[in-house]
Write a structure and sequence with these properties.
α1 crosses α3, α2 crosses α3 and α4 packs antiparallel against α5. The protein has two domains: about 60 residues, no CATH class; about 60 residues. With about 130 residues, it is mostly helical. The N and C termini lie close together (about 5 Å).
C-alpha cells in the first residue's frame, strides 16, 4: 500500500457520509444512489474529489487538520524544503502550519530513534 492510499483511506474514514454524499452529488451529473451503509455510490474519480472537497470543508469549518492538510505540508516541505511555501499554503487553508509540521517530524524522528534503540535497526512501517 502506498502512502497516498493510506492518506486516502484515513481521509475517507473521517468524512461523514452526509458530507461525502453532498459533495458527491455536487460533482455528479445525476443524484447518486446510496449503498446499504448510506454512502453515495460513485466512480473512483468522483469519490476522490468528493473526499478532497469534504476535507477542505471540514478544515475550514472545524479548524481540525485533515489528512489532506498534513500530506500537503509534508509533500511541499519534502520537495522544496521551503518554510515560506508551507506557511503560505497554511495561510491559504491548504496545509498545516510550519510549526505543526516540525512537531510531526520530531515525533516521527523520535519513533525512529526508539526503534533503533530497541531493535538495533530501523525498518519502515510502510509496505
Amino acid at each position: 500500500m502506498h502512502s497516498t492510499e493510506i492518506s486516502f483511506t484515513s481521509a475517507n474514514d473521517i468524512v461523514l457520509d452526509s458530507l461525502f454524499n453532498f459533495t458527491a452529488m455536487l460533482l455528479s451529473d445525476k443524484i447518486p444512489e446510496l449503498s446499504e451503509g448510506g454512502r453515495a455510490v460513485v466512480d473512483q474519480r468522483i469519490a476522490e474529489k468528493a473526499v478532497i472537497m469534504s476535507q477542505h470543508i471540514l478544515q475550514h469549518v472545524s479548524g481540525v487538520a485533515t489528512p489532506l492538510d498534513i500530506a500537503t505540508a509534508y509533500h511541499i516541505f519534502n520537495q522544496t524544503r521551503s518554510k515560506s511555501l508551507v506557511m503560505l499554503n497554511n495561510r491559504l487553508g491548504l496545509g498545516i502550519s510550519y510549526e505543526r509540521l516540525q512537531r510531526q517530524l520530531t515525533i516521527e524522528s523520535e519513533k525512529v530513534k526508539q526503534q533503533v534503540e530497541t531493535d538495533g535497526v530501523y525498518t519502515s512501517q510502510r509496505q
